[in-house]
């Protein structure tokens, strides 16, 4: 039997950061494209508002596929190891993203074009679903006990970087004339993902397996059906992750919906891209500090404070967009994203993954988060529907603020996990069990 790998927290955090950045770059360039061009290219016969709504609907469809992808990734990640599955999901994401960049439009393929677009988006959603659960599990299980929030926050640092790179890519090509941008300019960011994914696979493949998982694999029974164990023993933990994930509507709202909403109210396309980039870019500075605070003061206080800031900043942000006031929109974004959203996203990886034991952590975190991301995935579509129904900035602010308050209330019911040892995390019986015939013993629900 192989020796237990040495903990390598910095390497694990770096590999998780780079892998998440590449996967979420792929995921978010689709969001930018759906807001800027897909309505015109794949739904050309619909009215502009309806075409945008349809394009945003395909963006949301990727979130619908996440639970299935998470169930598969979590199952094999808890049975075969975190690293193997993470390499596979990255390759799958790269192939799907490159294929979208090569996809003919409605003018060439007719109705088959939007159908293929939807299929590839669903495949993207399945691939990305295993990223947060796997990368977080890997980082958490390599991290020292008193710095778990800091080292796991680099998973969302990577996701933020990916969203930022997606915005930068589209900002550069958005300066082309309209004909060139619609003809080929939008495709280049999708093609670039191929080279990025190759680099990411090489880096991630060099990382040793999680020492916690290797210990479970060597000395205890690997769960035969880890997701079944999670749902049977920790339904409350699954529901807490799902409920608190509602608060993450801020990311698709800022990166996808705000683009089309601001442009429709007179703010130039390049300016809206810059507003999104500044908000996301600032998060890269603030997130590590909020994670350090979570290691010192607890996960719940930092997450709760972030929700309060998000709710307070929603009205000025949407008011600025609705009035064509780029300065006010920028101020609102700078409060909402690098302060409010950063507090929550810095803490979420440790907060969620620490709810589950090592034997089921990948499955529990990935599946619960995937279900929790379905609603935020539809947030741009819901927001566009509110606007189409005559809603203004107040209605949009109530929508986002209400999601933030709901997330706060859910996390208030969770256990604080700062300072707990790894074998104290999750429900009894989900960390490691002696080898024995597979059975599901009753255990307290948490």
UniProtKB/TrEMBL annotation:
Q: What is this protein called?
A: MFS transporter
A molecular function annotated in GO for this UniProt entry is: transmembrane transporter activity
Q: Which GO terms describe its cellular component?
A: plasma membrane
Q: Ranges for the Major facilitator superfamily (MFS) profile domain?
A: 12-418
Per the record, the major location class is: membrane
Q: Where in the cell is it found?
A: Cell membrane
Where are the residues of the annotated region Disordered? 425-446
TM region positions: 12-30, 42-64, 85-109, 115-138, 150-172, 184-203, 237-258, 270-290, 302-322, 328-352, 364-388, 394-414
- Quote the Pfam families the UniProt record gives: Sugar_tr
């Amino acid at each position: 039997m192989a020796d237990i790998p040495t903990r390598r927290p910095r390497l694990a955090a770096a590999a998780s950061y780079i892998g998440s950045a590449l996967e979420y770059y792929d995921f978010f360039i689709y969001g930018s494209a759906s807001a800027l061009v897909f309505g015109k290219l794949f739904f050309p016969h619909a009215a502009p508002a309806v075409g945008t709504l349809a394009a945003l609907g395909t963006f949301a469809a990727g979130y619908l596929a996440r639970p299935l992808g998470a169930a598969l990734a979590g199952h094999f990640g808890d049975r075969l190891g975190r690293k193997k599955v993470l390499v596979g999901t990255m390759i799958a994401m790269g192939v799907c993203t490159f294929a979208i960049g090569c996809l003919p439009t409605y003018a060439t393929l007719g109705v088959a074009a939007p159908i293929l677009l939807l299929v590839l988006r669903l495949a993207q959603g399945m691939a990305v679903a295993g990223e947060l659960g796997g990368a977080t599990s890997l980082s958490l299980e390599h991290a020292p006990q008193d710095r778990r929030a800091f080292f796991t926050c680099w998973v969302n640092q990577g996701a933020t970087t990916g969203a930022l790179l997606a915005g930068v890519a589209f900002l550069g090509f958005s300066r082309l004339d309209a004909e060139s941008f619609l003809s080929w300019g939008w495709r280049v960011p999708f093609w670039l993902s191929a080279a990025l994914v190759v680099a990411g696979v090489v880096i991630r493949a060099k990382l040793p397996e999680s020492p916690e998982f290797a210990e479970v694999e060597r000395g205890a029974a690997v769960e035969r059906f880890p997701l079944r164990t999670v749902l049977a023993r920790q339904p409350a933990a699954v529901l807490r992750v799902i409920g608190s994930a509602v608060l993450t509507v801020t990311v698709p709202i800022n990166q996808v919906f705000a683009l089309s909403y601001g442009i429709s109210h007179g703010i130039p396309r390049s300016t809206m891209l810059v507003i999104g980039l500044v908000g996301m870019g600032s998060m890269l500075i603030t997130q590590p500090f909020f994670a350090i605070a979570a290691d010192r003061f607890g996960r719940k206080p930092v997450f709760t404070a972030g929700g309060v800031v998000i709710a307070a900043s929603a009205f000025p942000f949407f008011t600025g967009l609705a009035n064509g006031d780029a300065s006010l929109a920028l101020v609102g974004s700078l409060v909402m994203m690098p302060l409010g959203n950063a507090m929550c996203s810095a803490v979420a990886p440790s907060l969620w993954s620490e709810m589950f034991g090592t034997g089921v952590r990948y499955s529990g975190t990935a599946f619960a988060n995937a279900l929790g991301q379905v609603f935020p995935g539809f947030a741009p579509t819901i927001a566009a529907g509110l606007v189409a129904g005559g809603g203004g900035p107040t209605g949009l602010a109530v929508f986002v603020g209400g999601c933030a308050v709901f997330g706060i209330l859910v996390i208030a019911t969770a256990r604080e996990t700062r300072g707990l040892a790894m074998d104290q995390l999750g429900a009894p019986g989900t960390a490691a069990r002696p080898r024995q015939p597979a059975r599901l013993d009753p255990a307290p629900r948490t």
